[in-house]
């Protein structure tokens, strides 16, 4: 193809056919642009534009300027691209010898360039209006229609309108099938991205894998595809997979010499490494982007890399106060180029750097600039603008405005979160409100009483768990959904490595819009008042913990009063907890008696230290507790810190919902033993003698479909299975059953929630905390689906030795005790002098009120 186009260029040049020469150069530029060779494409279009302008051909000029706008947009020269679109539209208006159909066709192409500029700048509403206007044009070309429908689908998905997004994307895919394999692959890639964001992970990953094969068949480079996969994985907080995909994109662009796209992929990789906590690598990557973008004279990407570098150094604890001037120049440049999102990021980075300097008041200007710019962007950018505005108010000493901005931002975030289809997406979205929550807490601790502080904590605590997510009918919930893996772990690996194998998975769970009549959302109660909460506590004491300025603080609700109690520095608690993790790991499988003794001494010291830091200041000795941890405190063995029963909960509202559920506990019992777990059959057999009418599923009978159907709605379910933890996204942690592993996400989607649940597997109680005071994992997912009490361990447990603890627990549950009281009594029967006994005594915790 390129040879044919070059032949046309040579012929037009030799015959001095200037209009034909310009058109041929435009076609040759398209070839280079398809290979991401933007510099050469821009050079050819410059020449074509001079030819068109010299000979007064307005139509050719409009076409060439439109093509150059697209190339400049790809180069990051957003303002220059906008000038080209304006000039092209002006040239089109001067053209007289053109039919109405051709005029509309070219106008549609140029308006697509304008809409794409607004789209990438974050002006989603403006872009959507233009895309819809183009779709209403009768004579827009098929190519333009496909691109517009594809881009519109991405905007609709970004705004949470998933069904409409899916329909628009499906339209683009259908039409693109007639435009060749390259265009078809690009539209299917968007379709896969939307499927992932709709919560249909298996379906989306399967299509991503198929798209990779299509790219190869069309001899298309896979760099852009890898970036799309990285974006989808990052949105699901599957950061190792996202990083692997971004690394593949970087390698692909380096191998093919497409260094413009390499810069963009490397920037995405740096962002992911920073999100994954690897600030050192993020800094190295940003430095490489700075060098490469400087040689390319791509000032916008240079500015982005500068912001990344400053953020990475700040995360490493290095001095960034000297970055302020450079960051301000970067922000101004990005703003001039119309890159709204990156400009806000740069202004905020400048403000944060200024706050660390000798004159923090100078940060106000940068923060206010970020706030003003963000107000013009999409919802999540506006939330970031609220953070900037609230921080600026704190700098100015305006507490009322700071809390008002934080409250407004959290309200906007709640609106966005409610549009997301899965609990993990909602929980991850809450991270955008983490700073807003801490700003409000900081002010209220100084200016308000404990009741207001508790109410504010609940505003940011486990909000995703209270979302209205659909329950599925028994026919769907009980179905065995897969002939292979339910969680497409292999697909994750294949997609990021570019292998492109198909995923063995059945149809995705229906969305809320597809549910049969009669199936409604589960009820969600309003947060309780303090008096209602105290009534539900029935003499127990609530301790809810928050974080502010590097310190923990507790609100204590006892039968007589509510009070705020300052606790320890977060760093001191982390220092006390870290040795305990290693000690429990050694005690679960000690290499020698001496090793076990040393680990036990270390564990005892850590427990005493944690008790002194977290509970003794609260003065709750002798009280039965309900503890609402925050952040890393979800990994603390709370039952081992207190001598009375302890119940845990993701929020006070969540615990209150389990305490005030109206229906009586059912008498049905389900006992499940997974395969390959030493002692599981013995454990289930012993429990079956206690629960004479239990439904028992042994290691060979514990097939996923049967287990999911059995536990749904059971009064008590006991699962003795291997646990496969995923720390980066615990919704993909899994329990191993006879035919496959069942993930937390499946249990949550299918509504497989017993009233009470015992998870006798390693790490099943180790829910993971995220920014914004959210938690994800087995326990939180089950509580969100209506389970009222859970017992689970935060660490590895000795398989055989846990049987005695489980028997003692179930005897008390059968006698009518709550999970917290039954576990407390069962722990009292354990011989703590043995390593295995101590681990079991220490690591199991009770959650909820039942």
From TrEMBL:
Gene3D superfamilies: Tetratricopeptide repeat domain (1.25.40.10). Pfam families: CHAT (PF12770). InterPro entries: CHAT_dom, TPR-like_helical_dom_sf. Residues 606-834 form the CHAT domain. This is CHAT domain-containing protein.
């Amino acid at each position: 193809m390129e040879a044919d186009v070059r032949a046309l260029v040579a012929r037009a040049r030799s015959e001095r056919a200037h209009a034909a020469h310009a058109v041929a150069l435009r076609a040759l530029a398209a070839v280079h642009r398809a290979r991401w060779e933007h510099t050469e494409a821009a050079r050819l279009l410059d020449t074509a534009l001079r030819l068109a302008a010299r000979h007064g051909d307005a139509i050719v000029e409009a076409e060439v300027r439109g093509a150059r706008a697209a190339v400049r947009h790809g180069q990051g020269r957003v303002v220059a691209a906008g000038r080209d679109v304006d000039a092209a539209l002006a040239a089109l208006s001067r053209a007289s010898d053109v039919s109405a159909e051709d005029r509309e066709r070219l106008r549609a192409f140029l308006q697509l360039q304008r809409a794409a500029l607004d789209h990438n700048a974050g002006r989603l509403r403006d872009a959507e209006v233009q895309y819809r206007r183009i779709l209403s044009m009768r004579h827009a070309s098929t190519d333009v229609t496909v691109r517009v429908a594809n881009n519109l689908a991405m905007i609709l998905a970004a705004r949470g309108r998933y069904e409409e997004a899916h329909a628009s994307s499906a339209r683009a895919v259908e039409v693109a099938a007639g435009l060749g394999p390259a265009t078809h692959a690009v539209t299917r890639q968007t379709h896969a991205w939307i499927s992932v964001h709709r919560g249909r992970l298996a379906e989306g990953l399967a299509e991503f894998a198929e798209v990779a094969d299509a790219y190869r068949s069309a001899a298309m480079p896979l760099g852009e595809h890898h970036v799309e996969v990285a974006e989808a994985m990052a949105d699901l907080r599957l950061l190792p997979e996202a990083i692997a995909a971004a690394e593949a994109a970087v390698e692909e662009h380096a191998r093919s010499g497409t260094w413009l796209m390499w810069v963009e992929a490397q920037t995405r990789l740096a962002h992911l490494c920073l999100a994954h906590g690897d600030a050192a690598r993020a800094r190295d990557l940003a430095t490489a982007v700075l060098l490469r973008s400087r040689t390319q004279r791509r000032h916008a990407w240079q500015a982005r890399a500068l912001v990344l570098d400053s953020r990475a150094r700040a995360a490493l604890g290095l001095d960034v106060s000297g970055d302020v001037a450079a960051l301000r120049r970067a922000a101004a440049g990005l703003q001039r180029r119309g890159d709204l999102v990156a400009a806000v990021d740069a202004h905020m980075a400048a403000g944060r750097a200024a706050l660390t300097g000798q004159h923090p008041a100078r940060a106000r200007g940068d923060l206010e600039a970020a706030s003003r710019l963000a107000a013009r962007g999409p919802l999540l950018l506006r939330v970031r603008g609220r953070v900037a505005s609230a921080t600026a108010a704190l700098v100015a000493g305006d507490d009322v405005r700071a809390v008002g901005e934080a409250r407004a931002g959290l309200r906007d975030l709640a609106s966005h979160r409610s549009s997301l289809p899965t609990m993990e997406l909602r929980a991850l979205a809450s991270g955008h409100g983490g700073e807003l929550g801490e700003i409000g807490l900081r002010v209220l601790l100084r200016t308000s009483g404990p009741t207001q502080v508790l109410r504010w904590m609940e505003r940011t605590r486990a909000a995703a768990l209270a979302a209205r997510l659909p329950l599925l009918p028994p026919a769907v919930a009980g179905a065995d959904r897969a002939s292979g893996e339910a969680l497409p772990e292999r697909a994750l690996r294949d997609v990021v490595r570019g292998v492109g194998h198909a995923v063995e998975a059945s149809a995705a769970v229906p969305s809320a819009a597809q549910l049969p009549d009669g199936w409604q959302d589960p009820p969600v109660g309003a947060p309780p008042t303090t008096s209602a909460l105290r009534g539900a506590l029935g003499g127990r004491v609530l301790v809810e913990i928050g974080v502010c300025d590097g310190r923990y603080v507790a609100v204590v609700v006892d039968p007589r009063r509510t009070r705020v109690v300052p606790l320890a520095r977060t760093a001191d608690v982390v220092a006390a907890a870290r040795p305990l993790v290693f000690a429990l790991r050694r005690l679960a499988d000690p290499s020698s008696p001496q090793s076990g003794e040393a680990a036990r001494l270390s564990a005892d010291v850590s427990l005493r230290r944690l008790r002194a830091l977290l509970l003794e200041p609260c003065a709750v000795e002798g009280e039965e507790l309900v503890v609402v941890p925050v952040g890393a405190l979800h990994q603390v063995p709370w039952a081992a810190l207190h001598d009375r029963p302890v119940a845990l909960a993701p929020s006070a509202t969540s615990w209150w919902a389990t305490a005030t559920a109206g229906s009586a506990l059912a008498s049905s019992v389900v006992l499940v033993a997974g395969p390959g777990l030493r002692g599981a059959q013995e454990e289930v057999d012993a429990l079956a003698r206690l629960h004479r009418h239990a439904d028992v599923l042994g290691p060979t009978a514990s097939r996923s479909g049967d287990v999911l159907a059995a536990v749904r709605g059971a009064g008590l379910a006991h699962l003795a299975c291997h646990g496969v933890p995923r720390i980066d996204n615990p919704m993909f942690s899994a329990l191993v059953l006879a035919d496959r592993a069942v993930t937390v996400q499946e249990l949550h989607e299918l509504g497989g929630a017993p009233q009470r649940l015992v998870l006798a597997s390693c790490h099943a109680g180790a829910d993971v905390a995220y920014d914004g005071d959210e938690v994800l994992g087995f326990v939180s997912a089950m509580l969100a689906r209506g389970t009222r009490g859970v017992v689970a361990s935060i660490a590895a447990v000795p398989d055989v030795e846990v049987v005695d603890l489980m028997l003692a627990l179930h005897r008390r549950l059968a006698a009518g005790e709550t999970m917290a009281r039954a576990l407390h009594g069962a722990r009292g029967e354990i011989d703590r002098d043995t390593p295995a006994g101590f681990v079991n005594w220490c690591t199991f915790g009770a959650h909820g009120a039942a």
